[in-house]
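Quick log. Single chain, no ligands specified.
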Amino acid sequence: MSESSIQQFDRAHVWHPYSAMDSDLPVYTVVSANGVRLQLDDGRELIDGMASWWCMIHGYNHPEMNAALQQQIGTLSHVMFGGLTHEPAVALAKRLVELTPDALQTVFFSDSGSVSVEVALKMAIQYWNSQGQPQRQRFISLRSGYHGDTFGAMSVCDPVTGMHSLFSEVLPENLFVPQPRCRFGESCSDEDIQPLVELLEAHADTVAAVIMEPVVQGAGGMWFYSADYLARARKLCDRYGVLLILDEIATGFGRTGQLFACEHAGIAPDIMCVGKSLTGGYLTLAATLATRVVADAIDSGEPGVFMHGPTFMANPLACTAALTSIRLLLESDWQQAIMRIERGLSEGLSPCKEYSHVEEVRVLGAIGVVELHQPVDMASITKAFVEAGVWVRPFGKFVYLMPPFVMGDEDLKTLTQAVVDVVDTHRAG
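-> predicted structure:
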């Protein structure tokens, strides 16, 4: 198809994320990608500051990723997981059990991060049903949290900033505590944790689990909160007999400087969700891990099985991509890479602190955030970034970067300088 026909058909027939069919937002046609660069149909190259929504940690067109998938597709591209198994799935489950906190011993594969959250919520409800407490079907979540776009996941997103208020009449009514204001690197005071204490005291007998993104709240507000808050939340869940679900979809596999963000707090959840960079961005795959206690309880209750089963569960190609991506990560000096990127983001974005229309600049690991006072104008700011030779996709009042881990220093400087320049010229929003 010609470029004009691609664009015409796309505009007339194709929905994009959080977009309208008659949207005037620009859509750019990518014809190839390599390393940290996207090539557009008009020949321009863009340094990718988003890692394709945080998942392409090794960059594009990686030769070892390509070779692994080519070999796998010649052997077994897909087979149903009901009543059958295969080596890539078992090997990946083994690897995940080895890498995640020791208590997590069982693995359920699914197709996406949102579905992995659905699975986690269902696990918690089935757990309590097996314990003779079927009334425990509500969840406690943090304000400004984001957990996905399916109905269960929406119900534990912030009811205001979670972008899902349209569906409030059909979503389960869950409970929310204020966003932790104790920052990463700080301790958590009694005052900080008190709202969670009060909710648990009042509602523990109807709550199945507390769910939160550990340390980093992503699409709900790009906020970094105290690891001490997370540790205290773990103790409270134990005290009140409530499960703890950690959504590591965005934070897992090194993004925050630890392999999993819960390691900053030295705690383990009862249930953990992983996705996004799990496969190095090559294919969609997610997993929900649970303790043996949770799994055994589900097995012992009615109906004696876990009630979920995606068609493409444990797809061999996706599992192979995940195994290869994890190997590449662990064989690299990834922690040094994250520290290097953190320094580059901190230095490169620091001029934004002087702008009157900037609320704050925050950096943690390979995450850099420029929070503005007002939301950006998406059409104009996206165009400006493309003209600057970078791909940055802000949302609301947040201009943020989550680059691939393989990005070099010069590209990182170019990327951060583009943010500084574009933010400077887009003051009105």
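The longest helix spans residues 113-130.
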